[in-house]
Amino acid sequence: MKIWTIATYTFLRQIRDYKSMAAFMILPIVMILVLGSALDSFYSPKTIALMKVGTYSGDRGFINDSLKQFLTSNPIANQIETLQAESVEAGIERVKSDEWDAFIAIQPNTSEALQQGDKAALVLYSQTGTTFAGPLLESFVRDYNLNAVLLSLSIEAVNGVSNQPIVKQIPIVTEGKKPGGMDYYAVTTMFQCLLFGALFGVFAVTKDLGNYTHRRLLTTPVRSSAFMTGKLLGSTAIVFMIALFIFIVTKFGFKSNWDGNLELILSVLLLFSIIAAAMGMLLGYLTKSTMISSLLMFILSTVFTLVAGGFSPMKGKLIELLSKLSPNTYAQEALFTNIYEDKIMLSPLIRLVLFAGIVICLTVLAGRRRVQ
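Request: output the structure for the sequence above.
Response:
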């Protein structure tokens, strides 16, 4: 009963700090709106522009006609824009100047050479990194060789090459499977701001130290563990309330994707709120200063968010190693996996519980040391 009384008192005292409450509720919403809107294109699927492929033919036989038919057939014509060059040199120059992505040259008398059973080649010039034009031309050559073997080099077989589908169009649906800008930052920015909410844990400790309330409380017949537990519960309730506010606004106001298991989402938010409140109390007991604790919490929240990919996804062995020390990593992993893969992963949840347990134990030790 005494614990709940202390928790209620802590909660009411902090919720009456209207300026702090307004700041911690408005700031996350503004950050999510700005980041989600500004960087939405970074997380949205992009349409690939048509590849510009130039051609020049010194051949006037069936190979020239077959290649033209091949490049203008569906769905290849939907992937490339075919352009004519005045000469081989002009085509190569346009590739070098990045005006064209690739250039195909047919040597003179290529059709005659093939009819006589001699070797012939189509020459491809392309930019470094261009991968579509090469396989496309190889497909044309392979199909021609196959038909040539089967039908003894009949011209009709070559013309029939382009009737076979070379490029398959497979629609890829990313909606609900990949977070957009608003979806991504609704989660990552929330956790960053909840770590800022650790200041309520700091206030629960430093305000009593500053006005000597802590000394008077020690003279009452209540254990120090009850004081710490009550303050932790009250501070956690405040941070969790802020988390619920952000969740509701982003889900119904910004239409962010929160279509996961509601019990899991609330459990992750509650665990993270406990971690944030406990970290704030820990810093409050260690530093005994609101200003120093606030500065340290700001640094920690920024680092935790950075290594967890909260600002933007990051890769690298060092980042991967540091991310294991951040509670944001496990909270984001649990939510993103559930929302976009429809899976409930126990490992990030277990790590969040362990993280919360470690921080609470350190807070208790620091609080007892302060009492002594």
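Residues 155-167 have pLDDT under 50 and may be disordered.
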